[in-house]
Every structure is written in structure tokens, then in C-alpha cells.
Amino acid sequence: MNRIKFYIVFFLLICLHHFSFAQETINFKGNFGVIGDKIEFLVDSNSNISLQAAIKSDHYKKSQSKFPNLLITPFSYWVRFSVKNDDPGKTLALQITQPMIDNIDFYQLNNGAVVKTNFSGQSRPFNARLVQHQTFIYPFIISPGESGTFYLHVKSGKQLVLPIYLGTLEQVFESALIKDISFGIYIGIIMVMLLYNLFIYITVKDKNYLYYVSYLAIVLLTQACMEGYVFRFILPNHPYLADISIYITTALIGLAAIEFAKHFLSARKYTPVLYKISYVFWLLYTIQIILALTQHYNASYTVMLSSAMFSAVYVLIMAITIFFKGFRTAKFFLIAWSVFIVCVVVYVLKDFNILFPYNDVTSSALLIGSAFEAVLLSFALADKINIFKAEKEKSQEETLKVLQENERIIREQNVVLELKVEERTVELSESNQELNKTLEDLKQTQTQLVESEKMASLGQLTAGIAHEINNPINFVTSNINPLKRDIDMVLDALTMIENVGMSDASHAEKQKKINDYKEELDFDYLKVEIKHLIKGINEGANRTAEIVKGLRIFSRLDEDDLKKADLNEGLESTMVIINNLLNNKINVIKQYDDLPAVECYPGKLNQVFLNIISNAVYAVQKKFGENTGGEIAIITNHDDENVFIKIKDNGTGMDAQTQKKVFEPFFTTKDVGEGTGLGMSIAYNTVKKHNGQIIINSKLNEGTEFTLQIPIVFNAITI
Amino acid sequence: MPEKIKILYVDDEPENLVGFKAALRLDYQILTAVNVPQAIGFLNEHPGIRIIFCDQRMPGKTGVDFFEEIRISHPLPVRIMLTAYTDVESIIDAINKGNIFRFVKKPWTEADIIWAIAEADKFYMANSMLAVKNDELQKSI
Q1: C-beta separation of A70 from A101 below 8 A
Q2: Reduced 3-state DSSP string for A494-545
Q3: Which ipTM score applies to this complex?
Q4: Residue B82 β-bridge partners
């Protein structure tokens, strides 16, 4: 019993000794897990420590964390650890899940002898590695119960983190598969977002979508680079390109993010100052790229990490500012970006070991964050559409309101207008009525005036006739009585002579008695007187008949009939009427040509003659007064078509002004009450009715000549 | 038999003269003239003419003008106008210029004429008596 106890203690002591003084040996019991806290590493500043030197070296430091972070240095590092296989299976594998390690040299030692090596890394062709996977997988064989020592020589321009996993080959592969699937899912999400938004851009043509799509594409590319898939699938034989693409895509992603944010948030409009600051980042990222191209990888990666942080913060500030300015789109963007930022911060800080350690979650922070962000930004874009829709609806509402308002106003105005139109119509119809009435009155007045003119000329007519008839009638009346007396005397004489003849007186006695009686009577004179008296009565009766005939001819009661008439006759009858106006001082010259019968309205033409001739008399009397010298000539002649009647006087004449106005109704040069002023106007209308003409030829103080032209054959006036 | 009153009648229409003379020759001595010169001749020959009847409308001189002249040259006879034309102007003229005693319208009635003559005669007697007495008075001074 004691012996067993001793051996156990001794065994334990040996084990402990192993544990405490020698490097830690990792006992693999079949659990897949991280062994980063059980390794030691040696700093190889100039990358010149050989394997042998590394094996012998005493300057190893123990790792302090599960995920040793060797930061961003230009140094190489030797990493050492031992594994004891306590698992029945013998094929184990190591997996280093940081694909971006530039150089990784793998040495497996068994009892001090190198049994397996591999030299790979991102700076070496892809197929240099043992397993064609973006993570570094090293399958090895340690028989159960046996142990092995491993040395790794690592160097990286980027963050040198060593997430080292140990497990069976199967377990490692399973883990690798899960990783790939996860990334596949990620690609899926991003591609969906990308294609979806690309489609939207093609249909909506909103530039924001294009920016977003580009951003997503770059995100995808960057992640694919950083996770090593680009190197693995696209550029396996171009390690340099694959490597440099990491630096470039990380720069581009920063810029793309900033550009998208600027555009999406309309930064230029809302925060012009912040907008301008974005150019600083352009500078930073350019520097990053230049550094990478000039092989200052560490510097470039460092610039990338800090720029990423700053640009994330910058965009956050921009989003917050714009959100507080009331730009609603910023809300979703803010949420999306905050999520992403949190992830970016986590990712960055894990590399610097601040706050967040390196683990599965934090190393996938970018993926998680960018996936979330992509989805949320899609929401933001979609929300933008909603916002636009809301705005559009609002503006439509407003437009509708305005239109309705307009409609209402128009309706009101219409009502007002209608009223006004009514008012005006009433006013107009009233004034129309008034005008009509006035027109009627005027027409009546005109008719009355024409009538009065007719009456005036009728009055003139009757006065003229009366005067004309007075004289001849006088002959008859004054002669009748003396004639009667004389005839009585003759009859008495007859009786007396009869008695004397029958008496018994002597012949001589009878003779003497008769002679005495004859002498008493003045018989001879009686005979003469009786003859004269009879002649006078005859004369008077005849003249009266003539005048009446002339009057009949003048008045022409069949006025409205078109008749063939002798105008000379008409003139003569007019002259009879006029005769009374003539004061015997005026010399009237008549020169009548043989006129054919003229188709006309004779009564009306006679009125024309009367008006013109009486005007001529008036003019002559005005000039000559009681003196002789006044002359009126009436001359008629004709040609084939027309009859011409010329009435010429040597009276006062007319000036050009008066001549123009002669035919104007109510125009007269006579004193008030002397003339109606309608005579010439009526004359003009009558002549016009006959399709004739009145031609005036007048000189002031010398005389006037009216020429009437009347067509022989009547044609109604053609308008 | 007392002498018949001398009456002169001036008219350009002979028919008027005939009728006038025929009607009145039995009672009065009628002298007829067909124009003014003839009339003036009669006036000069027969200074005893008491009454002058004259027509207004005559060619040459009008009745008014004739009376205007006569008023000065032979003031004694009474002037009576005989006319068919009764416009006011000529009446006014006759009265004012010719200083006529009476107007008689044509056609006249005998009664009008005789009454006019009677009145005119009285007027003539009165005037001539006045003139004679004036003359005597003048001579006696």
C-alpha cells in the first residue's frame, strides 16, 4: 500500500514539476478549444532568430490571454507550446483563425526532432499551406499518450492576433465549415441587400441607392479580403495583390461609408461645415493607401484602424446633428450607424486590447455589425421613401386644400359676379328702355318737324295761293256790280226807245228824244264799258282757274305714286306759288327746254323746286333789298339719261363752310323762326330717292347755282 | 249839278281800273292811271284831285314809294292803299313812309270803297280849309 502511495506522490511531483518549471503542456482531452493562454512567445525583433536559436532561447514570455494580441509591429515572433494527446484518436489539428498573418512558419517537433514543417501565410502563395482554407490548419499526428512540441514563427503587417485552436481533425474541419457557412450567410445577406437596392436604384434612380449599393459592394469585398476568401478563391497565386487589396479596400470602405452618409443625410444642405470636414478623411485614407503601396504596412494598418474609428465617430456626429435639426431620415440612419459603430469600436478595441478582448464574437464584430447595418440602412432608405411619400401626401393635401380654397373662392366670386351681372343687366335694360323711349321721342319729334315743315310750306303755299287768287277774283267781284247796273241801264234804254218808237211823235221828234236820252246815258261809253267789264270778268275767271290748276299740279295729292311728269309744268306751278314772294323787283328768267316726261314723284319734286327757289328769292332780297338788279334764272335741259334743272340767282351766295352744311337737317342761315332748316335736307333726300344729284356752285356775295340732275328713267337707289 | 269829286286810281292791272271806274263813274269823276308817271301827269293837270287810290304791287315803283313822293309834291290828296298782299311789313311801310289814310283790301266791296271815299273827302275838306285859313293868316301878318 505504501509503495503505491509513494509512486503516486513521486508521479504527481514529477507531473507538478513539469507543470511548474517547464512550459505548460496542453493536455488534449478531445475538446475543441482555444489554447492561446497556454503558449509562450518570443519577440524576434529583426526576424533573424533561427529555429535552433528559438528552441534554445530562454526569453519566452507566457501568454496572458486566450487570444494573444501581438499588436501591430514589424517584429516577428516565435511561438511555442506542447501538446499531449490524451484522446484516443491520433490525428489532431491546429487552427489559427486569423487569415491575415503575413508569414507563418510551422514546426512540429517530436523529442527535439522536426517532424513536420509548413511555410505559409498571406504573403506566400495560397497553396503553400497544408489545408486549402483561409485559416491556417495544421493537421498532425500524435499517438495517444504521446506529446509533441510546436514552434510557430509569425509576422504580420496587420494586427497580429493569434487565435489558436486545438482539436481533432474532424472537430477543426467542422469548425472551419461552420465559419465558411457563416460567412456564406453573411455574403447572402449582403448580396440580397445589394441586389435589392440595385434593383430599386434602377427603377427609382435615386442616387442614394447607388451610393449604398457601392458601399455594400465595398463592404463585401473588404470582408472577403479580411476573412481571406479573396486570397483563397480569387487571387490564390497573387499573394501581394491579395494582401494589398486588404489595405485598399479598408480605405475604400471608410470613404464609401462617409460618402454614403453625406449623400443620404444631405449633409451639404444641413451641416455644410461637417460636410467640408469629410475631405480630411479623404486625405487620411489616401495616406493609408500610399503607405500600403510603399510597403509601410504597419503604419498603413494603424492609420486604417484609427481612421475607421474617427470616421465612424464623424459620421455619427453628422447623423446626430442632422437628426436634431429635424431631418427625419437621419433617425434610421442613426440607428443603423450606431449599431455599426458599436461593432466597429468593438472590433478596433479588441485589436488594441482595450475594453474588449479578442474572441469569436469580437472578431466577427465587423461582419455582424455590417450585416445589421446593411439591413438597417435598407430600412433607412425604405423609410426615406416613406418620408418622401408622407411629404408628397402632405404636399398633395396642401395642394388639394389650396385647390379647394381656390374653388371656394371661385365659387364665391362667381356668385358675386352673377349678382353684379344681374345688376348690370338690369341697369342696362333700364337704360336701354330709356334710350328706346328717347329714340321714339326723337323719331316723333323728327316726324313732327317734317310735318311742321310741310305745314310751313303748306302755309306758304296757301298764303301764296290766296294772294295770287285775290287779284283775279277782284276783277270778277268788282266788275259784276257795275256790269249789272250797266245792263239795267241798257235794258231801260231799250224800254225807253221802244216807247218812243211806239209813240205818235214825229220821226224827227222821236229821233231827238232818243239822241237826248243816249247822250244822257253816255251810251257810247256804256257800250265800251260793258265790253271792258265782261272782258275783265272773263280774265279774272280764267286766271283763277289757271291758278287753281297750278295749285293742283303743285300739290299733287297722288304724291306717293311714281308717275311720268313734265318738270317744266312743275316749275311753272311752283312759280305761281312763289309769285307772291317776288316783290316785282326781282327779274325772273325762264329758259325751258323741251323735256321728256320724267318718271318721278312729281309732288315731292315740286316741293324741292319750291324750297330751292324760295331760298334763291331770300338770298336775292337779302342782297338787293328793295333795289332792282336781283335776278333768278330757271333753266331746264336734258340729255339721254338725265334731266337738268338749273336754278341760278345773283344773291348773297354761300361760303365754303355753309356749302358743306347746306343739306344738314335744321341748318339754316335765316333768323330764328324764319326757317325750319329742313327745306334743303328734304330736297336732298328727295333727289337721292330719285337716284339723282344736287350740285351746288356758289360764290360768296356773287350768287348761287343749284343744278338738279334727275334720271329720266327711275331706278331705285342701289346701296 | 255840284262837281263830282275827282278820284285818281293807279293800278298796273287794266281790268282793275275798268271795274273801279265802271262802279263809281256815276257818282264820282274817276281818273285811272296804269303807271306812276301817268298818275303824276294827272295830278299835275287836275290839282283838284281829292283822293288817290293806289295798288301796292306794281312793276317799277311800288305804291308805297309813289305815296312817299306824292306826300311832298302833292300833299293835299288823301292817300288810300288798295292791295291784295297783306304782309305786315308792307303795311307798316305804307303807314310810316306813305302816311296813308286808309287801307282797302282786294277784292273790295263797293261799300268799302264808298265808305272810304266819304271819310277821305271829309278829311280832305278839313285839311284844305285848314290850309286856306293858314294862308290867310300868313298873309294878314
Answers
A1: no
A2: HHHHHHHHHCCCCHHHHHHHHHHHHHHHCHHHHHHHHHHHHHHHHHHHHHHH
A3: 0.79
A4: B55, B104
Are residues A41 and A81 in contact, defined by beta-carbon separation less than 8 angstroms? no
Angstrom distances, CA of residue A583 to CA of A540, A554, A565: 21, 21, 30
Q: Inform me whether the pLDDT recorded for A281 exceeds 90.
A: no
Orientation of helix A365-502 relative to helix A207-226, angle to 10°: 170
Chain A touched by B132 (CB under 8 Å): no
| Inter-chain CB proximity A478 and B107 less than 8 Å | yes
Task: Please give the Cα distance from A161 to A362 (Å, whole number).
Answer: 12
Do B76 and B99 form a contact (C-beta atoms < 8 A)? Answer: no
Q: How far is A547 from chain B (nearest CA, A)?
A: 15
Task: Compute the half-sphere exposure of residue A310: CA atoms within 13 Å on the CB side of its CA.
Answer: 16
Please, how many CA atoms are within 13 Å of residue A560, restricted to the half-sphere of its CB?
Answer: 0
pLDDT in tens, B65-123: 899 899 888 888 999 998 877 777 778 877 888 888 988 888 888 899 999 999 999 99
Taking the model in full, what pTM does it have?
0.46
Q: Characterise A145 by phi-psi region: left (phi > 0), alpha (psi -120 to 50), beta (else).
A: left
Three-state SS letters, chain B: CCCCCEEEEECCCHHHHHHHHHHHCCCCEEEEECCHHHHHHHHHHCCCCCEEEEECCCCCCCHHHHHHHHHHHCCCCEEEEEECCCCHHHHHHHHHHHCCCEEEECCCCHHHHHHHHHHHHHHHHHHHHHHHHHHHHHHHC
Burial class (CB in 10 A: 0-12, 13-18, 19+), B89: exposed
Substitution target in B9, B11, B12, B18 with the highest count of A β-carbons within 10 Å is: B18
- Residue A99: enclosing H or E segment and its boundaries? none
Q: Which residues of B touch A536 (CB under 8 A)?
A: 15-16, 18-19
| pLDDT value at residue A21 | 40
With 50 as the cut, is the pLDDT of residue A500 above it? yes
Is the pLDDT at A251 greater than 50, yes or no? Answer: yes
**CA atoms of A315 and A151, how far apart (whole Å):** 44
CA distance B131 to chain A (A): 35
Sign for the pseudo-dihedral over CA of A52, A55, A56, A60:
positive
**Are the beta carbons of A584 and B107 separated by less than 8 Å?**
no
pLDDT of residue A464: 65
Q: Which of A82, A126, A71 is nearest to A104 (CA)?
A: A126
Answer yes or no: is pLDDT of B9 > 90.
yes
What cell was used for A133?
Answer: 482554407
pLDDT tens digits, one per residue of A414-429: 999 999 999 999 999 9
- Of B15, B21, B107, which is closest to A539 when you measure between CB atoms? B15
Q: Note whether A555 and A603 are within 8 A (CB).
A: yes
Q: Which domains are delineated in chain B?
A: 6-140 (3.40.50.2300)
Q: Which of A363, A364, A246, A219 is nearest to A300 (CA)?
A: A246
- Strand, coil or helix: A652: coil
What is the Cα A595 distance to its own chain's centre? 79
The answer, for A473 touching chain B at a CB cutoff of 8 Å, is: yes
Distances (CA, A) of A539 to A448, A531, A536: 41, 12, 5
> Residues of B with CB below 8 A from A520's CB?
none
Task: Phi first, then psi: give them for residue A662, nearest 5 degrees.
Answer: -50, -45
In this complex, the residue of A477, A486, A580 whose CB is nearest that of residue B107 is: A477
Contacts of A554 (CB under 8 A, 6+ apart): A461, A570, A573, A574, A576, A577, A603, A606, A610
Can you tell me whether residue A595 is helix, strand or coil?
coil
Contact (CB<8Å) A479/B19: yes
Ramachandran bin of A205, using left for φ above 0, alpha for ψ from -120 to 50, beta for the remaining angles: left
Give the DSSP letter of residue A232: I
